[in-house]
Design brief:
Layout: E1 28-30, E2 33-39, E3 49-55, E4 65-66, E5 71-78, E6 81-84, E7 89-92, E8 97-100, E9 107-109, E10 116-123, H1 128-134, H2 143-149, E11 153-154
Antiparallel strand pairs: 1-2, 2-3, 3-10, 4-11, 5-8, 5-10, 6-7, 6-9
Length: 155
């Protein structure tokens, strides 16, 4: 294994870091039940997408699905999140981690009576913001095409 192709070719570095304080409101939803766009595909130049997901008690999540082009990783920050690893449901708690490579079946939801929070990482980056923002608006007859456009194949 080697390092990837060089992206930056300057000699002295540059000022390009981005800071996001914890007090920043979520881009989607509301405090306590929303998605924070920590690092989008655009800001990472396609390297990854990182999202902080805040789930209310008994919050549903997606049913079992897989991705062909992106991997998805879950890191539980607080509470308990039910994670499906393709074979079984796991009650994941603070500090637990699940990585799902391309093609791996997975699902998640908050089955508990308490709120939960997790980090969601997609690699390489993909325009997941549109998926999160428009999923609820897509007509039932257009849902399959919308999901395929966003590399989400439900089984």
């Amino acid at each position: 294994m080697s390092y990837p192709e060089e992206v930056y070719s300057g000699d002295s570095g540059e000022v390009s870091a981005r800071y996001r304080p914890v007090t920043t409101a979520p881009e989607l939803g509301r405090e306590g039940d929303g998605i924070h766009y920590l690092a989008t595909t655009e800001t990472t130049r396609g390297e990854f997408g990182l999202y902080r997901v805040m789930m209310r008690p008994k919050a549903p999540g997606p049913s079992t699905h897989f991705h062909r082009t992106i991997s998805e990783s879950f890191f539980i920050l607080d509470g308990v999140v039910s994670l499906f690893d393709g074979e079984r449901w796991i009650e994941a708690g603070k500090g637990d981690f699940l990585h799902v490579p391309q093609g791996g079946l997975h699902a998640f939801h908050n089955a508990s009576d308490e709120p939960a929070e997790m980090l969601l990482l997609f690699t390489p980056g993909a325009p997941r913001e549109e998926y999160f923002e428009k999923l609820g608006e897509v007509a039932k007859e257009d849902l399959t095409a919308f999901r395929v456009k966003h590399d989400s194949y439900f089984v």
